[in-house]
Structure formats: structure tokens, C-alpha cells
Please model this.
Amino acid sequence: MSSRILPQFALLTPQSISEAVDMLAQYQGQVSVLAGGTDLLVWNYIRKVKPTYVLRLSALDDLDYMNYIPGEGLRIGARAKVAQLLEQPEVAGKFPALYESALTFATPQIRNMATVMGNVLRASPAGDCSCAILALGGQVVLQGPDGQRLVDIDDFWISYGVTARKNDELAVELRIPEPTSITRSAFYRLTRVHEDLAKLNVAVRFEMCQNGCRSARISMGCVGPTPLRLKQTEKLLEGVPVTDELLQQVAAAARKEIAPIADQRSTEEYRRQVSGVILTRVIERAAGTHRIAI
Ligand SMILES: Cc1cc2nc3c(=O)[nH]c(=O)nc-3n(C[C@H](O)[C@H](O)[C@H](O)COP(=O)(O)OP(=O)(O)OC[C@H]3O[C@@H](n4cnc5c(N)ncnc54)[C@H](O)[C@@H]3O)c2cc1C
Model:
């Protein structure tokens, strides 16, 4: 008979960030950090990770924040929930891709438990906030025994489930840079049902100019082992007007740049085909040439 009982672990409850870092150093490699638990405590996942210790962040109230700092951007503490992205007024106006990723994220119950940081640290290719953050650009602040270090989001995901975080480091903050007056962004995801993980997600960030787009960042999820930046495809958009012909070239380039797999949510062929379609629609929306309601 199959059983869904969680494996046994010892629970650590540090009262400060420095105590958390000390504990991570002391039990290096045997500890999993618990934020909202919506990934970690899912039976399949914790059974695979089998931590000896689980270090919960529940007493670290000083990591609950989500602050917009004019001129600097968005600062998201490690305990800030996905739901907070929908409550912070500047997120919808200045970081639409991130707002839209939260809007379509699971259910209100999950959004109220899941943290934005947990989404990034899970290092899943399907992470919705992760996809948006990769397009927007940003940094992860890691606190270790020797102090803090900042890792660019472009360098943060190493492979499926693996990040640049060291075992004795706690991820404490996400930093998303301030957009300028010419920045545009958008996000979209395809799912089987709303509560499910994405079949495919896409986010873009553009700096617009008179000719169209001055510079572009495109990210796509569920098309490789980690959220992926489509750097070759981005180049096609730079400095030229967004025309139907260009969008066709962009869709074809994206299909070549991704490496999707088949799984229970989609076939490889479907993902490759639909990636170009979804990407062009998101580009049209962000660039203001939107024609089709999606
Ligand atoms: C029913 C359901 C629906 C879901 N729907 C979606 C969805 O629509 N879109 C989506 O993207 N995801 C979805 N998820 C996945 C999950 O909710 C997200 O990935 C969520 O953001 C994880 O955050 P958490 O706070 O729950 O992380 P946790 O489960 O607590 O942690 C996730 C991972 O990150 C590590 N971690 C967390 N915080 C830190 C830290 N500060 N420092 C170091 N390591 C850390 C943990 O050790 C663990 O490995 C869903 C999950 C469920 C159960």
C-alpha cells in the first residue's frame, strides 16, 4: 500500500538571520530551507530531497517586506508572498510582467502561502515569477558566514533544481531594477487548468524607442532545464519596427533556440510550435501593437 507520510526531519526555527546562517553552516548540506512549503512539503519533492533538518523562516518577520524604492526598484524579502505582488501598488504599474505572473499563479490559497523567493530557489523551469524576473532582470541577495553577495538572475539557475546558492547561504532578498519611462513588460502562461503548473510561460521586457525596440530581454519557461533567456531571438528585435514579418522571424528563431521536453503536461512538439505563437502575442502586448485579445 502506498503511503504519503512525510519523511522524518528535525525542525530548526532560527530567531534571526545570523542564527539561520549559523545553522546552515553547522548542518551544511543536510538542511532544506522552508519558506511557504508549497514546493518543499509536497510529498514527491521532499521524498526526493530527504532533508535531515528543515530550517523554517517563520520567526524571521523582518524578511516579510516588499518595498518599492523610487530610483532603485523593487526589493522583495525572502518571506514575501506571491499575493503581496498583487497588493503592492507599484508592481502592476511598473513591473507588469511580474504582476501578471502573480495574477495567474495557482489559487489565492497557494498565492497566500508561496513566496516569490521560494519560486526562484526551487529552480524549476516552470516557475511563473521566475520567468518574469528573468525577463525583468535582477539580483538575488545571499547571506552567508562572510556576509552578503549578490548574484545576477542570469547566472542564478545552474541546472534543474540547482542554483548558485551555497549550502551555508540563506537567500534574503530579490532586487528588481527600476524601469525607465520607455520600459515595457508583459507575461503570459499556458496551463491545462488554472491551478496547474505552466505548460509554457513567456515574459518580455523592452526598452522602446521611436524605431520600435532599443533593447529586449525575453524569457521562456518549460522549454529547458531552467527558465531560459532567448538571447539570439532578442537580437532580432533590437532597433527595428515590430512588423508582422519581423514577428514571424522572431517566432521561428524562438522555436530554434528552445529545448523543450515531453512530460505529463505537454508534448515536445506542441511546446515548440506554440512557443512562437505565444511569444509574438506577448511582444505585441508589451510593445503596444496588440491586435489579438489573449
Ligand atoms: C497546488 C499548487 C499549485 C502551484 N501552482 C504554481 C503556479 O501556478 N506557478 C508556479 O510558478 N508555481 C506553482 N506552484 C509551486 C510553488 O507554489 C511555487 O514554486 C512557490 O513559489 C514556492 O514558494 P514556497 O515559499 O512555498 O517555497 P518552499 O516550498 O518553502 O521552498 C521551495 C524551495 O526553495 C528553497 N528556499 C525557499 N526559500 C529559501 C531561502 N530564503 N533561501 C534558500 N532556499 C530557499 C527551499 O529549500 C525549497 O527547495 C504550485 C504548488 C502547488 C502545491
Remarks:
- The pocket of flavin-adenine dinucleotide is lined by residues 32-40, 42, 78, 82, 105-106, 110, 113-115, 117-119, 121-122, 126-128, 165, 170-171, 195, 197 (CB under 6 Å).
- The first strand starts at residue 10 and ends at 12.
- Residues 61-177 form a domain with the Uridine Diphospho-n-acetylenolpyruvylglucosamine Reductase; domain 3 fold (CATH 3.30.465.10).
